[in-house]
Amino acid sequence: MSLLTVGTMAYDAIETPFGKTDRILGGAATYIALSASYHMSKSNIVSVVGEDFKQSHLNLLKSKGVDLEGVQVIKNGKTFFWSGKYDLDMNTRDTIDTQLNVLAEFNPILPEVYKDAQYLMLGNLMPSIQQRVLDQLPQRPKLVVLDTMNFWMDNFWEDLIEALKGVDVLTINDEEARQLSGEYSLVEGAKKIMAMGPKFLIIKKGEHGALLFHEDQIFSAPALPLEQVFDPTGAGDTFAGGFIGYLAKTDNISFENMKRAVIWGSVMASFTVEKFGTERIAELTNNDINERLKKFMSLVNVDI
Ligand code: AMP
Fold first, then answer.
1. pLDDT tens-digit readout, 27-69
2. Which of 55, 168, 182, 230 is found 20 to 30 A from 201 (Cα to Cα)?
3. Domains of the chain by range and CATH?
4. Is 234 in the pocket of ligand 1 (CB under 6 A)?
5. Buried (b) or exposed (e) across 285-295, using 16+ Cβ within 10 A?
């Protein structure tokens, strides 16, 4: 099944208790596409970069079967830049800087060949742009997943509420779920958020795993306890890529299959945090992934 991902392609500067980086490859769409590529040998991406975006980074995505016809390269423009710093516990981070650059004027134009997308991943991006991509599809995809973050809640609340009306699955973290719903209880909050549009809600809780909500059903997946978490950047996007990649490959959007997809999302995210940026997710082999999936299964398997 065809998968279309929309989101930022970025340069990030990251500081964790283990070190500091200067302008490394990042962006929501980058992580999603790399992660989904282990399920989908081909996928499409809509994004924007500046002239400073390195050819080697475009080549990396191409080598993973990601079609880049939908990526606009803006002459004399600068790529979206984000910098963040993590606390010692690695669960909380402060955004130091967000420079929209080419994203501020981005008008997404879908190549004709992308328009039959069956699975649409609206990665973290300005909500009005996410909406414009959905509006350009002549037929509604089988599944629309939207990821967002507090930045858009703080600055583009109305646009986000409008975009949520048209999505099937929303993925956000626990802090964002509380901000969006105004509820401290995630269960109460989930009900309120699902009333805003999404039929399914995934709340990511970092090292504490993820919750999947649908109507009155809840599924909980742990995160794999790792010896060392080096850099959590992109874990949420990598999760989203593993989640939608699995659903698109199996072409089954039942709640049961979404549970499996949540496990796949968690498996993929567990790699990203092991090294800075996209380094780990870009180098994985199928063997690494299968071994990690086995570990995950033994973590949750119990006979009572
Ligand atoms: P995550 O850790 O999964 O939330 O994703 C981190 C990635 O999101 C980084 O690579 C950033 O470039 C990107 N990012 C940070 N802020 C934003 C934003 N406001 N909109 C879209 N992408 C962002």
1. 999 999 999 999 999 999 999 999 999 999 999 999 999 999 9
2. 230
3. 3-300 (3.40.1190.20)
4. yes
5. eeeebeebbee
